[in-house]
Amino acid sequence: MNMQNQADLMTYMNSRRLKDNTRQTYLNTFNKVAEQMEHEIIFKTINIIQFRDIFNKIDLSNAIKYKFLSVLNVIRPNEVVISRLLTDYKYKEKVQSDQRTEQVASLEINFNDLQNDLQKEKNPTYYTLKYLLLTFGVRNQDLVVKITYDKNYFDKNRDTENLLFYDKNRLIYSRGNYKTKSIFGVIAFDIEDSRFKDIVNTKDEGDYLLVKTTKKPYEAKDISVLINRIYGKSFKEIKFSESIIYKMIINHYRNDNKMLSQYANSRPHSQQTQLTTYTP
Predict the structure, then answer these.
(1) What is the pLDDT of residues 189-224, one digit of tens each?
(2) Are 142 and 123 in contact (CB under 8 A)?
(3) Is the whole model's pTM more than 0.85, yes or no?
(4) How much of the chain is helix, strand and coil, in % rounded to 5?
(5) pLDDT at 264 over 90
(6) Could you give the CA distance from residue 85 to residue 69 in angstroms, rounded to a whole number?
(7) What is the DSSP track for 80-127?
């Protein structure tokens, strides 16, 4: 991405209170678009008709294009062409999302299969990842979790980090860095699962729950690939993601209001979002 486009994006991001992972998502999105367009193109000043013709031809998902246009619509306000493109790609992304939801509902794989797979999982790291996904319906960012046994550290950092805190024999999964924190604040849940607790208990102070072979922790941007790779070992019928897994959970409990409310609280989001976005 050239310097001018980067400067315009930074101006946009600095004018908003964005989390680090959100800022990185915007940077990644702009870089993906820039890689497929001529690098000297300045998004803020290019002839808008020329931009539209090039943009429609680039090979990126509707979700990425929509996210990019959402920012460009602010960088270049009052541009009718951009507003129309934004509306078009919002619709296309919704159609694709609805198709993915219908696909989940029609799959032979279901939540019970995922639960059985969890119980058969022998790899400790894979077990912890699958457990958090199935038990709390979490997003990728929520799986970047640090382990601590230090109450002072926990109290000091729980507002900004995702932590697994051992308080005597009690294991607390606390989240202070997740997508909807500005709405729901810091949230915490006790983990009772004995195997999960035993796995965490083998970790040292400051270790991350999910680490690469290089011993470096997985970042949020790497988690989606990890989820698909892990579940792909057991199921090859579908490309897995946290969103697909969550839709399977909601499909399973679609007639159980108590469980739907529980997952809305643990993801978390509103029950209206759950109904409109994740229910087949």
Answers:
(1) 999 999 999 999 999 999 999 999 888 999 988 999
(2) no
(3) no
(4) 60, 10, 30
(5) yes
(6) 8
(7) HHHHHHHHHHHHHHHHHHHHHHHHHHH-S--HHHHHHHHHH---HHHH
Q: Tokens 């072979």 — which residue? A: 213
Task: Tell which residue, 255, 162, 166, 269, has the closest CA to residue 217.
Answer: 162
**Residue 143 DSSP class:** G
* 91: its two tokens: 């619709």
Chain-centre distance for alpha carbon 179 = 8
pLDDT of 46: 76
For CA atoms 65, 69, 72, 74, give the dihedral sign: negative
By residue count, the chain amounts to 280
Token pair, residue 207, equals 């270790």
Q: How far apart are CA 54 and CA 176, in angstroms?
A: 40
The answer to whether 70 and 201 have CB atoms below 8 angstroms apart is no
Amino acid (1-letter code) at residue 9: L
Which residues lie closer than 8 Å to 198 by C-beta, 6 or more apart?
Answer: none
Name the pairing type of β-strands 170-175 and 162-167.
antiparallel
| Rounded Cα distance, 64 and 43, in Å | 16
Query: Which is more confidently placed, 122 or 109?
Result: 122
Kindly state the tokens that stand for 235. 């199921």
| 196 neighbors 189 (Cβ within 8 angstroms) | no
Q: What is the layout of strands, in order, in the sheet containing 162-167?
A: 146-148, 162-167, 170-175, 187-191
In sequence order, the 6+-apart residues with CB closer than 8 A to the CB of 224 are 140, 241, 242
Distance CA 81, CA 33 (A): 18
